[in-house]
Design goal:
Layout (H helix, E strand, L loop, with lengths): L2 H28 L9 H30 L9 H30 L4 H29 L3
């Protein structure tokens, strides 16, 4: 597994864990009541920070283990990695646009801040996840 793919996997794993944790904590805080009553801002900020730190730590540990196995390949990337990165960015941006449109619609209907923020928050997560999965597929099957 190349350096860029390993970092991508680390970020995907951290993102899926963080988003799952966010949903669980928000639902627990709601306790069966309305979700809009949850103090979601600190939960969201901790989730964002935790996922970033988790991805970095996982990437470092995974990189150290990979470096023990094949020290010459650590940290190298090539044109294929850049092409895959550009492709995944384009794929992910499509979902970011959809989330942005959702936020605009929610603002137009004067929805609660909870729904607006969470639409954008999950839009970022879905955008990254879809782009990341597209990258993994490209690494495994090649670019078309």
């Amino acid at each position: 597994m190349v350096y860029e793919e390993r970092n991508l996997w680390s970020s995907l794993i951290a993102t899926f864990i963080a988003m799952t944790a966010y949903v669980v904590v928000v639902l627990q805080q709601a306790g069966g009541g309305p979700l809009t009553e949850v103090d979601w801002v600190p939960i969201m900020l901790w989730t964002i920070g935790g996922s970033i730190v988790g991805a970095i730590v996982l990437s470092i540990v995974w990189g150290m283990l990979a470096g023990l196995k094949n020290p010459d390949e650590v940290g190298k990337s090539d044109q294929r990695d850049r092409d895959i990165s550009h492709m995944s960015t384009r794929v992910g941006q499509a979902f970011m646009v959809i989330a942005g449109l959702g936020v605009l619609v929610l603002c137009a209907f004067e929805a609660d801040w909870f729904w607006i923020a969470n639409t954008m928050f999950f839009g970022f997560a879905v955008s990254f996840a879809v782009g990341g999965i597209a990258s993994v597929i490209a690494y495994r099957r090649g670019l078309v």
